[in-house]
Write a structure and sequence with these properties.
Order of helices and strands: HHHHHHH
Structural class: mainly alpha
Radius of gyration: 20 Å
Amino acid sequence: MTESNGAGAAPPRPSNFNLPNAITIVRIILAPVFFVMLLVDNGADGGLRWAAAVLFILAIATDGIDGHIARSRNLVTDLGKLLDPIADKVLTGAALIGLSILAELPWWVTIVILVREVGITVWRFVQLSDRVIPASRGGKLKTLVQSIAISLALLPFPALLGDWVNWVNAVFMALALILTVVTGIDYLVQAWRLNRTPPARP
């Protein structure tokens, strides 16, 4: 009787052409659609502003959906690990730039956040030859707080509830900015430590 060939075999690697990666790509495609909807009526508190805000919230919410599907169905891929944070950055970057164009968010806040996001993304690409670097826990918290802060800034609540909502928005945006800078520094510290670690001997 012959032994089963699959007894000690490693599980097959999931294909890059799967549902979680497709959802991530759709999130990237939705970014320019959202951007145009936000700016087309100069950010007025009308239907398009509400539609743009809702589209952003729905698109950013898919981040948790595709991650859950990938983990629960063993569909985690290196491509997904790379595209997922890129999709978040494209969507949040479009929102931040749009809010700054509308003079609803200082440009320096947008620039600080984008420099951090683009810098870390470029670093990830540079490290591709050695390893794929997924988002850290701090990075995921940063993304969550950014999403809440941007959603509050996009929703035209001040027109309905009064100017005090702007203070709430400012608090969340400040927290998002702090987490963005802190986690960016943390990534740089990790990179420095990894570069100092001597390669393992064969």
